[in-house]
Amino acid sequence: MSHSTARPDLVPADPLTNHEYDGIREYDNPTPGWWYWMFGASVAFSFAYLIFFHFSIAGWTPEDTWADEQRAEFVRLFGSVGQLKPDDETILRSMDNPQFMTIAKASFIGACSACHARDGGGLVGVNLCDENYKNIKHVSDIFKVITDGANAGAMPAWKRNFSDNERVILAAYVASLRGTQPSNPKAAEGQPIPAWKADAGK
Amino acid sequence: MIDSAFVASAAPGSALAGETRRERVHLEEYSYDDDIVRKFLAVTIVWGLVAFLVGLIAALQLVVPSVINYTTAGGARPFAFLTFLTNVPFLTFGRLRPLHTNAAIFAFAGNAIFAAIYYSTQRLCKTRMWSDTFSRLHFWGWQLIIVLAALTLPLGFTQGKEYAELEWPIDILIAVVWLGFFGTNFFMTLKVRRERHMYVALWFYIATIVTVTMLHVVNSLAIPAGLFKSYPVYAGVQDAMIQWWYGHNAVAFFLTTPFLGMMYYFMPKAAERPVYSYRLSIVHFWSLVFIYIWAGPHHLHYTALPAWASTLGMLFSVMLWMPSWGGGINGLLTLRGAWHKLTDDPVLKFFVVGITFYMMSTFEGPMLSVKTVNMLSHYTDWTIAHVHGGTLGWNGFMTFGMIYWLAPRIFQTNLYSKKMAEWHFWIGTLGILLYVIPIYVAGITQGLMWRAFDQSGALAFPDFVETVAKLMPFYWIRVIGGLLYFAGAVMMGYNVLRTWMARPAVYEVPILKTPPLLPAHFERPVFTSRLDANTEFGKAGDVFIQNFQNAWWHRALEAIPSKFILWSIVAVAIGSALEIIPMFAIRSNVPTIASVQPYTPLELAGRDIYLSEGCYNCHSQMIRPLWAETKRYGEYSKPGEFVYDHPFQWGSRRIGPDLAREGGMRSSLWHVLHLEDPRQASPQSIMPAYPHLLNDPLDFEQIQTRVRVHAMLGVPYGEAVKDGKAAEMARTQAQKLAAEIVQAQGPTGLENKQIIALVAYLQRLGTDISKPAPDAAAPASVGASSPSDGKPARPDAPAETKSN
Questions:
Q1: What's this model's pTM, rounded to 2 decimal places?
Q2: Would you tell me which residues 114-153 of chain A have a C-beta closer than 8 angstroms to some C-beta of chain B?
Q3: Percent of the residues in chain B that have a pLDDT greater than 70, as a whole number
Q4: With an 8 Å Cβ cutoff, is A28 touching chain B?
């Protein structure tokens, strides 16, 4: 504190108010001009924003944007094929569509891997990579199990979470896991069933 | 009222000039009560250390699971001893995090505020506090509240609303101590003051006291369902709105306005310089208190909150930038001509860095409240980094600076070690940087990972836990930052302890002499227009501007506390009323959904466990209408889905995934195994383990009271309110669910355990919307909910889902 008095040249010469509180004094400086300009600009922006988004036809809502994206996604993914049928033939054909398989793999990791493991080797849920199945006879049965669940809710129903098309390609992805080599396979459950190609051309 | 009392007591003859009168009156003798300041200062340090330590433990809990199973070449697990941080019920993150936030805000910052107010108010008013007894009731009452909080929160007694977790008996105690003891004492001190005008610090204290009272009382309204259990009177969207009106303004009126008051007193004191601008302090004070109160809804962007409220929250936050910076520039520019003092004064160093963090936070706040920025930042660590810049930087450093300035004065000796204070400053600053920088990176990283798509249009990181595992290096750096900050505070504790030990045997109590308060006396200046050729309207405008700029009208207001208090109430009431009243009055804000039904008694009991374990600290229940989000979690949440949620549980941070549509997503057995030890279901999970839920019995009998309280609040429970009915319904559902788990080769004997209720609740979440609406004539079909029935929520044809 000693050199504060030694450097009076540094003390601004602005006019002081006559206020004093417990030794504290106040300068009579005006509020900086830029403060008013910035404040005014934020008020002006707010009015403009409010009018644009809530009192004009030009504004949009997050729900609008979401619906646009959903439409675009449907057209991009399924625009050429339209509604996919959940039958053996469509599911087997979908297995050869690399774009469908990438999309379905992400769905599988997000929704199924918690119980079936990321590579389908099974955890709480069954091993999807071996030749044995509990509720499946034909490839289209995979769609049914995904849609409605199985084993009294142990396998949940997913029709709420995925659209019909999404469940068709997810069934195709699950079918494609058969015969792959998971890192930590769970013991086989259920019965062996014929290869998927037996379902083709029925 | 306060004012009329002293005007009446003033002697006639106000025509006399003030100076003349002052010589004629006798001088009144008084002394300051610094003992109460010493008390508050001591507990500020103690609770500060507790708050920082609990924060440090919470930070460790997020990284410990990633190393517990680490095995050395020899097969040993060197970190296995840390397992207790992940599975001891009262130490889990969900219970410690509220303890950390409550301790940091209400114990550390709270006591710091009180120390500042008791020291400065007496001096600014030239009087002792109105009542020493009230000062002590305030002190001991507040410490009792803190101890009760420290006991009840780890035990899982909580209202489940962030920063308002404390249960109803403690809430009542808070109201009594805050307004009854503290507020009364403060306002009566203003009444008996000997300084005509109130300095700007006092304005901020006034705004703090009136607004915190309003926020606390309105947000805490609840119906008790036992000594340590209650349900808020609001539900869903309205509860969310009230909660964040409270939550954001706890930041405003507990962590900002009192600290600005602190700054306005201690900064010019420490710098020995006049405050930069009196007129700026007027403009920024009123704009701040008027605008801040509106900003709460920015915590709820893209949620089921109506768009108009969200927009108001954003715009008032943007407008808040300059009012906030007004305080910052007034503080920093007070140092004009005194910057050289920083080199050898740790107090000023703390203040300057504190104010700098304040200005950074109050720029960042408006930025984060812009909806499109918030879209990325919300639910991520970005918010955590933002908050800690404000709390560690602004609240912490202002408090530390004040403590170093106060300690030698109130203990009437020299500070034990200035060098140690310097070290505290540098270690603390480094600690803040090592905390916030990695957490910013973590927040933005995770936010971008959540919304990342690969080339095929699928989520790039569909497994949520991938986005968590990525953050571990940043979380480790945060632990180091927190450790440094804590170490600095320990040094301060030691420094102040040694200072206290060097105190005189008997404190000197100077007797001061001041004439009593004179009647308010000012002359209103008369202005004439400076414009020559203009309309009468233009000239009137010029006169108005001159009046405004002269600020005589405000000078008059500063002399009359009752009017000042009244205007403060008006300023904070306007925004509150204009946001809250329409939210309750206009039905279209929450369109009802016929298929949404109350929780079953068992699910309600499960929800109470969800609250009690503090699940909302890591899991949101609110899916925003964003493409990446609905891809990950399912259909976005609708306002009508939450009408029976007392309290709402939308959450504010996703350390774990959103649970709004968790119902039916996994098997019940999976939930049991996952709750018992999350690592056995998801190896990279950092969630605490809840094995006790599989052992602790569920109290079926207490569900009845809880159902009845909900019925009182308007939840249509029908049959379930009858004696014994709720327990019976709960038992039936529990047996059915336990049988399912056994059938799936899960553990047996869960039908009377707590976990069964929690799983029932989780399996119900977000499922109602896809069920068929019940027959309007039938009573509420409570008890009949199974997650597996319902129609598809997302039909393929886009035209069908265009809901508006």
A1: 0.90
A2: 114-115, 118, 123-125, 148-149, 151-153
A3: 93
A4: yes
